[in-house]
Amino acid sequence: MIQVYPAGERFHFDREWLRGSHSFSFGEYQDPNNMSFGPLRVFNDDTIAPSYGFGAHPHSDMEIVSIILQGQLRHEDNIGNVAVSSFGGIQRMSAGTGVIHTEHNASKENDCNLLQLWFEPEVRGLTPSYMTSSFNPASLNGKLVPVVSRQGGENQATIHQDLTIYLSRLEKGEQIEFVQQPNRRMYVFVINGALRLGDGQVLSARDAARIEQESRLELTAEQPVFWMLIDLP
């Protein structure tokens, strides 16, 4: 079963210093029929104005992944971590028993665009932790590259959930087949470009698909495309 969620139907907002969209219920957007997809609880597409950001605020029992697409994101928390990441960088915070952090656009001139994903952890009450990782954007060409996973690895952030986040770039006409174990889910998100799914549906920039009961999926670039796939329980 493949269910497509067009970008235009997502909840959008503009607060001048922060604009973007929510794929699941979050903040002022609440829909009891759109709370999560497996352990994926939040998928926010945020653009932060220069020098602005989120002041100190708490989290607990959530795995939070920030994927920076443009500009610079600065993180600071009460367990001693400070980091600035740009395109190719990923930040992962395991909130566990509780952490307080801030997030700001580190630039005084340019916007910061990021995707922020929240996942329910496999186990609650973990010790809070934080890490950064980075990938070479050129390594994404023509294949799916894991950038976040439970087991971790070179150029990957680890996460306390049985999932893997992949990124890929395809040229027009290139195709990838993804195979996963039965009874799992896939979440596909197009960052830019256009991607045709195995059933013929085409995802354009910022469209998403929630996929269940499909252990094999063919994906073909309708035009040059930068996209994400998440393998979920």
Q: Major sheet, described briefly?
A: 9 strands, mixed
What proportion of the residues form beta strands (DSSP E)?
Answer: over 45%
The assigned structural class equals: mainly beta
Global outline: globular
The end-to-end distance, rounded to whole angstroms, is 15 Å
- Unreliable stretches, pLDDT < 50, 5 or more residues? none
Round the Cα radius of gyration to an integer and report it: 17 Å
Helix content: under 10%
Order of H and E elements: EEEEEEEEEEEEEEEEEEEE
Average the pLDDT over all residues and give the rounded result: 97
Number of strands: 20
Question: Helix count, per DSSP?
Answer: 0
Descriptive report:
- This protein has 233 residues and is mainly β.
- It is built from no helices and 20 strands.
- β7 and β8 (82-85) form a beta hairpin.
- It is globular and about 45 Å long.
Which SSEs are present, and which pair or pack?
Elements lengths: L1 E4 L5 E4 L3 E5 L17 E9 L4 E7 L3 E8 L2 E5 L4 E4 L3 E6 L4 E7 L6 E8 L9 E6 L10 E5 L7 E2 L5 E7 L4 E5 L5 E12 L5 E2 L4 E5 L3 E17 L1
Parallel strand pairs: 13-14
Antiparallel strand pairs: 1-19, 2-3, 3-4, 4-11, 5-10, 6-9, 6-11, 7-8, 7-10, 9-12, 13-15, 15-20, 16-20, 17-18, 17-19, 17-20
Features:
233 residues; 9-stranded mixed beta sheet; mainly beta; globular
